[in-house]
């Protein structure tokens, strides 16, 4: 059996361990103060319960996190995005970058909400009734290569030079063929992106071009749209899907938080 002294030492150690775990307030984004939350969960292990820290006409979406455990797991990033995107489907939201942790809820008010109240409020009013969507288009590889060789005589000549010959004997030709194909794909991407932007301008509040995430990306756009005009956006993309059938696979992602169209004080400081 354990002595009372041993039990006392164990209890004291447990209390020290618990007291050593410090916490902070993880901030997801800014919403109007009259928002009501369901039982939302955010980052952390286990996921923290999300609550509102209010000040004036705005509020911050926050949850408690242990500051001695690094954030950055794929689950944390996914939880951050899912919370903001779910909020954006219902109310205007100004998203903060992943990983924003403040000392406590009082710091959230004193250092974030109070000094930037008017700027945040103006930003929320700008987003009222609007949401971001992302358009991704990827070339179908066989169709893409068929176009390149049909339109580029140099590519055809290089391919003929390579066929049936050892790799080391045609190294320069192979390198050049890769360059020609990449240049052709970039030109096609520019032309197809321009065509889509021209068609979407009348239907969107704003459009932002995103960098390609794959060498076969045809289109990668973020668009800010009045939620009441989502059907028009979908109809325009359906028309492009018909024109590009068998050539480009299109996806529409959203609604989501307006990551590409807001600049919070946190992001302004990062850009300085």
Report on this model:
The protein has 272 residues and is α+β, with helices and mostly antiparallel strands. It has 2 domains: 127 residues, no CATH class; 139 residues, Alpha-Beta Plaits, CATH 3.30.70. 46% of the residues lie in helices and 22% in strands. The chain contains 9 helices and 9 strands. Strands 1, 2, 3, 4 and 5 form a 5-stranded antiparallel beta sheet that branches. Strands 7-8-6-9 form a 4-stranded antiparallel beta sheet. A hairpin with a 7-residue loop joins strand 7 and strand 8. The chain is elongated.
Helices and strands in order:
Elements (H helix, E strand, L loop, with lengths): L3 H17 L2 E10 L18 E5 L2 E9 L7 H15 L5 E2 L5 E2 L2 H9 L3 H11 L2 E10 L1 H11 L1 H10 L8 H30 L5 E4 L7 E10 L3 H14 L4 E9 L8 H7 L1
Antiparallel strand pairs: 1-3, 1-4, 1-5, 2-3, 6-8, 6-9, 7-8
Order of helical and strand elements: HEEEHEEHHEHHHEEHEH
Overall pLDDT confidence:
89
Low-pLDDT windows of residues = 1-19
Q: Helicity, in percent?
A: 40-55%
Main β-sheet, in a few words? Answer: 5 strands, antiparallel
CATH class of the largest domain: Alpha Beta
Under CATH, the topology of the largest domain can be stated as: Alpha-Beta Plaits
DSSP strand (E) fraction?
15-25%
CATH architecture of the largest domain: 2-Layer Sandwich
Radius of gyration: 26 Å
How far is it from the N-terminal to the C-terminal residue, by CA? 64 Å
Outline? elongated
User: Helix/strand/pairing class, anyone?
Assistant: alpha+beta
**How many helices does DSSP assign?**
9
Number of strands: 9
Query: How many domains would you count in the coordinates?
Result: 2
Subcellular location: Gas vesicle
Keywords: Gas vesicle
GO cellular component, one term: gas vesicle
Pfam family, one: GvpL_GvpF
């Amino acid at each position: 059996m354990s002595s009372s002294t041993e039990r006392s030492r164990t209890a004291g150690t447990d209390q020290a361990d618990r007291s050593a775990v410090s916490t902070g307030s993880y901030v997801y984004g800014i919403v109007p103060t009259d928002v009501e939350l369901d039982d939302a969960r955010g980052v952390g292990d286990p996921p923290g319960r999300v609550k509102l820290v209010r000040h004036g006409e705005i509020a911050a979406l926050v949850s408690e996190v242990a500051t001695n455990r690094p954030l950055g797991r794929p689950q944390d990033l996914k939880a951050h995005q899912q919370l903001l995107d779910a909020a954006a489907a219902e109310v205007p939201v100004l998203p903060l970058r992943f990983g924003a942790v403040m000392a406590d809820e009082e710091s959230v008010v004193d250092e974030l909400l109070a000094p930037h109240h008017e700027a945040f409020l103006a930003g929320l009013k700008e987003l009222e009734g609007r949401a971001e969507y992302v358009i991704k288009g990827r070339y179908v590889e066989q169709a893409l290569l068929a176009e390149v060789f049909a339109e580029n005589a140099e590519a055809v000549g290089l391919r003929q030079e390579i066929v049936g010959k050892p790799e080391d004997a045609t190294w320069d030709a192979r390198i050049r063929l890769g360059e020609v194909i990449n240049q052709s794909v970039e030109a096609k991407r520019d032309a197809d992106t321009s065509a889509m932007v021209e068609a979407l301008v009348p239907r969107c509040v704003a459009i932002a071009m995103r960098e390609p995430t794959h060498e076969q990306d045809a289109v990668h756009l973020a668009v800010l749209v009045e939620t009441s005009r989502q059907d028009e956006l979908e109809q325009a993309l359906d028309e492009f899907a018909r024109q590009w059938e068998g050539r480009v696979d299109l996806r529409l992602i959203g609604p989501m938080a307006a990551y590409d169209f807001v600049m919070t004080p946190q992001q302004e400081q990062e850009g300085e």
